[in-house]
DNA sequence: GCGACAG
DNA sequence: ATCTTGTCGC
């Protein structure tokens, strides 16, 4: 299924997928064709990343008072054959969930460091389509611009949808940082090739720092401020934490025993 | 050549 | 990511 040139399997199911609602924005691509122009190769994927990264603008351009925040994450089933994408919409002020969606689609790409979005973005876009209304802000489990070519899955999501997006990862993909202070809120810049591409944020005491990096329409400082606003006593911000629980079949309602 | 390597 | 119970530390 992977011959080095065509690593991505285009499937019938994807071809007849439902079109994206018109609530997303002018920059959006359809969930059925997430990577227009991609030839399916590794080199082509990297080239597309460089091209899309050039479209990322880090000027804050979100609603004055975001009313909703969405969290996205992915998990796997059937030994990896099925990709589970979770999308949770929360009230930005109370952080209470308003909508929760879980979609299952066939896995079509293996995990390749630096090309995570080519594996998980399609499923995330399908999950996004389930929302009854577009979120004011998006948070994705993964890197924003803290990526070798400045297009982690969060940044890619933002470019693909036109929505303001923030990346929150549990670990670093590239670059380095000095350990931030021990108290919640302490932070230390993430550097890569001489550029500040993110912030290692101590979101909770005695926990490893969260790697925060912006996607389109959000600045680095803005991303940190938004993440801080979404914290509720856990290392991960609520949007991503709830999506993670839903995608990883660890959701309270789905557990027995 | 060697080490690193989101999820 | 995923396979998996209890356990050490705060």
Automatic annotation (TrEMBL):
Keyword Metal-binding among UniProt keywords: yes
Cofactor(s) this protein requires: Mg(2+)
Reactions catalysed, as given in the entry: Endonucleolytic cleavage at apurinic or apyrimidinic sites to products with a 5'-phosphate
Record Gene3D superfamilies: archaeoglobus fulgidus dsm 4304 superfamily
Entries under CDD domains matching the protein: Endonuclease_V
GO MF terms held by the record: deoxyribonuclease V activity; magnesium ion binding; RNA endonuclease activity producing 5'-phosphomonoesters, hydrolytic mechanism; single-stranded RNA binding
InterPro entries with a match to the protein in the record: Endonuclease-V (IPR007581)
Compartments, as annotated in UniProt: Cytoplasm
One cellular-component annotation, GO: cytoplasm
Database matches in PANTHER family: ENDONUCLEASE V (PTHR28511)
The name this protein goes by in its record: Endonuclease V
């Amino acid at each position: 299924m992977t011959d080095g040139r065509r690593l991505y399997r285009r499937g019938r199911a994807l071809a007849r997928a439902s079109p994206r609602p018109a609530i997303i924005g002018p920059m959006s691509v359809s969930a059925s064709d997430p990577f227009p122009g991609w030839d399916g190769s590794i080199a082509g994927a990297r080239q597309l990343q460089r091209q899309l990264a050039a479209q990322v603008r880090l000027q804050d351009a979100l609603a004055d008072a975001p009313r909703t925040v969405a969290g996205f994450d992915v998990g796997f089933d059937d030994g990896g054959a099925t990709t589970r994408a979770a999308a949770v919409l929360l009230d930005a002020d109370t952080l209470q969930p308003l909508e929760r969606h879980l979609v299952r689609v066939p896995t079509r790409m293996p995990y390749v460091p630096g090309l995570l979005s080519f594996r998980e973005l399609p499923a995330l876009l399908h999950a996004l389509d389930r929302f009854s209304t577009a979120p004011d802000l998006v948070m994705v489990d993964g890197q924003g611009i803290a990526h070798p070519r400045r297009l982690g899955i969060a940044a890619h999501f933002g470019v693909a949808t036109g929505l303001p997006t923030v990346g929150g990862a549990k670990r670093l993909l590239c670059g380095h940082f000095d350990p931030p202070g021990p108290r919640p809120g302490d932070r230390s810049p993430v550097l890569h090739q001489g550029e500040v591409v993110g912030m290692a944020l101590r979101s909770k005491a005695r926990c490893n720092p969260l790697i925060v990096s912006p996607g389109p329409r959000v600045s680095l400082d803005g991303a940190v401020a938004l993440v801080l606003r979404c914290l509720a006593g856990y290392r991960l911000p609520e949007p991503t934490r709830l999506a993670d629980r839903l995608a990883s079949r660890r959701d309270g309602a789905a557990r027995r025993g």
